[in-house]
Design goal:
- The complex is a heterodimer of chains A (365) and B (332).
- With 365 residues, chain A is an alpha/beta fold.
- Chain A is built from 13 helices and 14 strands.
- In chain A, strand 2, helix 2 and strand 3 form a beta-alpha-beta unit.
- In chain A, helix 12 packs antiparallel against helix 13.
- In chain B, a hairpin with a 2-residue loop joins strand 5 and strand 6.
- In chain B, helix 2 packs across helix 3, helix 2 runs antiparallel to helix 11 and helix 5 packs across helix 12.
- Chain B is globular and about 50 Å long.
- Classes of the chains: A alpha/beta (365), B alpha/beta (332).
- At the A-B interface, helix 3, helix 5 and helix 6 of A face helix 6 and helix 7 of B.
Chain lengths: 365, 332
């Protein structure tokens, strides 16, 4: 998965990159502390919290009682009083218990107070597919949080960006929902050492192209890149955009891309209806309608909850194959060439089961 | 606000007559302000819901007198008395209720969101119990900073029905945070009496189940409220952890709005009269007795009246905020 542009020659996992981001931030500012359930858990949230408690102490790494709404409210109160808390939710579903504080107090305290209060707060949430996690442990609920002005919602796809964006999120004076796809914790990439920030400035074009625009979020960016790679081999030039920041949404790079390519395929980790893709397609249709040469396409989850069994998963998650087929339809690509591209994707995946991110994955999360 | 500082460590020293007169003036001021809001509400200048504090002034003043200016208060939808007792600016309060740019938060929140950060009136949050974890987080921040400051969360009897109260109480108790929960039991959540919402048991037991120190007092008795609040605040300041202080009191007027509502059937006129007879302001006045001369009292009342008229006039003539400001401060 080393498709991030090369940086310094050091390859680590995205989980380790996040841990480094926390450590770098902690070392620079004593007002930063974190809450999570199971901070001493040896698995330490995919390793992202490993060793941080030992290094910085209980005062900085606070074991959170099983009380999500309370925890977010407490973090908001601490943030209003000059602290910079980080909260980690191991499953996005637990954050649903905290919606009241997220929506009423985190998102609105700056606004209601006429700018007098600030809420520098990071709420990490883990979303997405995993080994049999099923209907209430693997949802992708980012559109819920993206609904509210006052929240920032970010979804890094690459290890280096995850570290830089996390440091930027911690230093941001706003509440930032930092969404991590479970599979991505195992992905690797070139990650610079030490302290650096990647601005929360919206979509980045990560692969230039001219025939079609593919916008992805988080793990689906990797699927989009896989699709673009095999499409290139059959003479189709896809531009891939990593959305990165869902709110505030900066449409400019996407509109510019669609004005160039004339086509839009949006692929994200959530449901098709009322989702991120719906917002992107609506915005493009509203603002660049005349540039579109074909109807824009949304790819996402179908209209049912996530089943646990791998027998029920085929066809559930949108992937590179689906992207290739949709691009082929949109651009009326030659059937034989498309079959060649799809075959190549098959070969890359080899016999890897559908419920694991890479050959090294051993479960259980 | 001077007495907020001078009185805070006077746990065992009875209030002097001079102090009682000053406190009486503060309670009377809140009552007259609230009555002015009620009287003028129908004129249509105050175009937002108002939850009046009439009848509950002793809890607000008794507790805030036990605090230093730098201590912090978080309140609820019924926040007028807390805001005023903590020293919140009256003109900016009227302006806020009238939706004016000069309001304490520029017309963004109205009556239910009053705040004055410089006075330690940090926020009023109108979703029941929503302010509780925020207050606990405020106390956590001050514990981390070793600032010696205390946070007070004014809450109502219904808030202990909310899950987040228990989440917050557990955390505050576990970490011995410098926070005091002032539970004003006015017996009603909107129109629903306590007996229909909770089993018959001491409300203080709920806090004690979280390992928290709890006390119970007559919330209409200023001296008792002040004494208990002073003890609770001192415990917090001395790092002995949170206290739950239950204060019995009564909401005289309707849940939301300017009127009396004993005629609509959810409570009786008799019940109202029993509580009205325990008026926190009249009872303190009778205990002060002749030490407050009637001419002094008259001039005190007149001064408050003039201040209210002045603040109302300020709010009336203040400009509305420009519509272009509505999108400001979404992000810091």
């Amino acid at each position: 998965m080393n498709i991030q542009s090369p940086g310094p020659e050091r390859i680590i996992t995205l989980a380790d990159a996040i841990r480094e981001g926390i450590v770098e931030s902690f070392a620079r500012d004593d007002s930063i502390f974190l809450f999570a359930q199971g901070v001493a858990d040896p698995s330490s949230m995919w390793g992202t919290l490993k060793g941080i408690g030992n290094r910085f102490g209980e005062d900085r790494v606070i074991e959170m009682p099983v009380a999500e709404n309370g925890a977010v409210g407490i973090a908001v109160g601490a943030a209003l009083n000059g602290q910079r808390p980080i909260i980690s939710f191991h499953r996005v579903e637990f954050a649903l218990l905290a919606l009241e504080q997220i929506v009423n107090n985190a998102a609105k305290s700056h606004y209601i107070s006429n700018g007098q209060h600030k809420v520098p707060l990071v709420i990490r949430m883990v979303i997405g597919r995993g080994w049999g996690q099923g209907p209430e442990h693997s949802q992708s609920l980012e559109p819920i949080f993206s609904y509210f002005p006052g929240l920032k919602v970010v979804m890094p796809a690459f290890a280096a960006d995850a570290k830089g964006m996390l440091i930027a999120a911690i230093e941001d004076d706003n509440p930032v929902i930092f969404i991590e796809h479970r599979f991505l914790h195992y992905s690797t990439g070139h990650v610079p050492e030490g302290y650096y920030k990647n601005p929360l400035d919206g979509p980045h074009v990560i692969r230039p192209g001219k025939d079609v625009t593919i916008v992805g979020t988080s793990h689906t960016v990797l699927e989009a890149m896989r699709a673009a790679n095999v499409l290139a081999d059959i003479g189709c030039s896809a531009e891939v955009i990593d959305l990165r920041v869902l709110r505030p949404l900066n449409m400019a790079p996407i509109l510019a891309s669609v004005r160039k390519t004339g086509g839009l395929i949006a692929i994200d980790t959530g449901f098709v209806r009322y989702g991120v893709g719906a917002e992107l397609v609506a915005s493009v249709a509203g603002e660049a309608f005349n540039a579109l040469k074909a109807a824009p396409v949304r790819l996402g989850l179908p209209e049912h909850p996530t089943p646990s069994s791998r027998g029920l998963i085929p066809g559930f998650y949108p992937d590179a194959q689906l992207v290739v087929r949709e691009v082929a339809k949109m651009l009326k690509l030659d059937d034989a060439k498309v079959r060649r591209a799809l075959k190549k994707l098959d070969e890359q995946r080899k016999d890897l089961p559908i419920d694991v991110p890479d050959p090294y994955f051993k479960g259980p999360f | 606000m001077s007495s907020q500082t001078t009185l805070r460590n006077s746990k065992d020293v009875p209030l002097s007559t001079e102090q009682l007169v000053d406190i009486y003036r503060k309670m009377l001021r809140i009552r007259l302000i609230e009555e002015a809001i009620a009287e003028h509400y129908a004129e249509g200048e105050m175009r937002c819901p108002v939850h009046l504090s009439i009848g509950q002034e002793a809890a607000a003043v008794g507790v805030c007198e036990a605090l230093a200016l730098t201590d912090k208060v978080y309140s609820t939808h019924r926040c007028h008395a807390h805001y005023l007792a903590k020293g919140g600016d009256l003109k900016r309060m009227f302006a806020e209720i009238c939706g004016k740019a000069a309001g304490c938060i520029g017309g963004r929140g109205g009556s239910m969101h009053l705040m004055d950060v410089e006075k330690g009136m940090m926020a009023s949050i109108p979703i029941v119990a929503s302010s509780i974890p925020v207050a606990v987080g405020s106390a956590l921040a001050d514990k981390r900073k070793r600032s010696g400051k205390v946070t007070v969360a004014f809450i109502g009897d219904a808030s202990i029905e909310e899950g987040v109260f228990h989440e917050s109480a557990n955390f505050a108790s576990l970490h011995k945070l410098p926070v005091v929960f002032i539970c004003e039991n006015n017996l009603y959540s909107v129109y629903t009496p306590l007996r229909q919402r909770q089993p018959d048991r001491p409300l203080t037991d709920v806090a004690r189940a979280h390992g928290m120190f709890a006390m119970h007092g007559d919330g209409n008795n200023l001296e008792q409220t002040f004494k208990l609040a002073t003890e609770a605040v001192q415990r917090a300041r001395d790092a002995h952890g949170p206290t739950f202080l239950l204060l019995d009191t009564y909401r005289w007027r309707e849940h939301c709005g300017p009127s009396f509502d004993n005629n609509i059937g959810y409570r009786t006129e008799d019940e109202y009269k029993q509580w009205e007879a325990q008026c926190p302001i009249r009872s303190l006045r009778s205990r002060i007795g002749g030490a407050l001369k009637s001419d002094l009292e008259q001039s005190m009342t007149a001064k408050i009246g003039a201040e209210i008229e002045d603040a109302r006039a300020f709010a009336r003539s203040a400009p509305l905020p420009d519509a272009s400001l509505a999108s400001q401060y979404v992000y810091a």
